[in-house]
Amino acid sequence: MSxxxxxxxxEYQLVDLRSGRLCSVNDRVLAAAGPAMAETVQLELKRSxxxxxxxxxxxxxxxxxxxxxxxxxxxxxxxRCGTQLVAAGTHPTxxxxxxxxxxxxxxxxxxxxxQETASQTLICGxxxxxxxxxxxxxIAVLNRIRPWLPTLLAVSGNSPYWAGDxxxxxxxxxxxxxxxxxAGMPQPFDDHAxxxxxxxxxxxxxxxxxxxxxxxxxxxxxxxxTVEVRIxxxxxxxxxxxxxxxxxxxxxxxxxxxxxxxxxxxxxRPELLEAAVxxxxxxxxxxxxxD
Length: 291
Hints:
Layout: E1 6-16, H1 26-33, E2 41-43, E3 49-53, H2 60-79, E4 83-86, H3 105-114, H4 116-120, E5 125-131, H5 135-145, H6 149-156, E6 161-162, E7 165-166, H7 172-177, H8 192-204, E8 218-220, E9 226-233, H9 238-261, H10 270-283
Antiparallel strand pairs: 1-3, 1-4, 1-5, 2-3, 5-9, 6-7, 8-9
Helix pairs in contact: 1-2, 2-9, 5-9, 6-10
């Protein structure tokens, strides 16, 4: 099978260079980054967050190069604003409620609709895109990789602290994100038409505006011909992020080949999958996972 394209999105916190406290200056950092980074840096839900996106990559070596460059260049821009990037799923000491929303229509609408859930959401993840051109194959991959996602979360857990407390979790970000109405593990779909029908139903019910508001652990990207895996915390180091990207690429490639070979997908009760996600979020790699 030919090499599949890759892309990685990372969310970061902006903290004061001296105190380490959150800084609500993402608009200033974006301006300091300048036009050269306009295609790769975006504002996030809270004013103390930014997101970077690699270009389409053809190898893990390229992913590593792009992430190192993006982190370095954006950190330079942040330093000009008296801040620095932190790659962690949660901030260790920020208050439980941080309602300082980025002043964009999308985020203000989310704040208005989801209220306290949106206010509590100060978390950062790592999203990996793997190119799969065929929409039907994208759905098949989503169905097949679901049982492996808890293991990916265990590998990437990077958010043990919340509001000054050691939560006892490897990924408390996962627990903070659960109240969103479209967060969690998607159920299997018969085909792409079934997926589109569900999106239309959710939009019609007023739960989401469009498919970009599906916050499942894995989804067909609404913008690109990719499978997007979203369960991982943002990783502390580029090396760890590239490892996560490589694991996702391998999962997708394996699922694609299994689908083409006609093998049956693994079946698992949704309750068991959610229990596996919880156990991965709680213990990371320090205890047994659910097989």
